[in-house]
Amino acid sequence: MAFERLEKQGNTPKDRFSIHQVRILGQTLRIRSDKEAEDLQELIDFIEKKYREREEISSFQKLLMVTLEIADELIQERKRNQEWEERLDSLLALFPE
């Protein structure tokens, strides 16, 4: 695994996060997250895969390109989600309560 859970916070909604030590792109970081181990590993694998696809440029440029690519994918998914929500609302309007 590329990370380990270091400590668990309290039981209040604000404190439901765990501190994880994460190794990503050769760097070890401590992050606070409410994600499960499998979800964190999936995120790390996704970022590292995108990073490795960009071998022809410097590390900083690769990281910047990966960030932009992931942000673009997120924005496109949000737009598609919004379109589906609008379609669903239109269909639901056809059936009064």
Notes on the protein architecture:
With 97 residues, the protein is α+β, with helices and mostly antiparallel strands. It folds into two domains: 1-52, no CATH class; 56-97. Helix content is 53%, strand content 21%. It has two helices and three strands, in the order E-E-E-H-H. The chain has a three-stranded antiparallel beta sheet with strand order 1-2-3, covered by helices on one side. Strand 2 (18-24) and strand 3 (27-33) form a beta hairpin. Helix 1 packs across helix 2. The longest helix is centred in the C-terminal third of the chain and has 35 residues, at 59-93. The mean pLDDT is 81.
Write the layout of secondary structure elements.
Blueprint: E1 3-8, E2 18-24, E3 27-33, H1 37-52, H2 59-93
Antiparallel strand pairs: 1-2, 2-3
Mean pLDDT: 81
Uncertain stretches: none
| Sheet with the most strands: spatial strand order | 1-2-3
Tell me, what's the shape?
A: flat
Largest sheet: 3 strands, antiparallel
* End-to-end gap: 50 Å
Q: What structural class do you assign from the helix and strand content?
A: alpha+beta
- The structural domain count equals 2
**Rg measurement, Å:** 19 Å
Strand portion: 15-25%
| β-strand number | 3
Q: Encode the helix/strand succession as letters.
A: EEEHH
Helix count from the secondary structure assignment? 2
Percent helix: 40-55%
Tags for this model:
flat, 97 residues, alpha+beta
In short:
With 97 residues, the chain is α+β, with helices and mostly antiparallel strands. It folds into two domains: 1-52, no CATH class; 56-97.
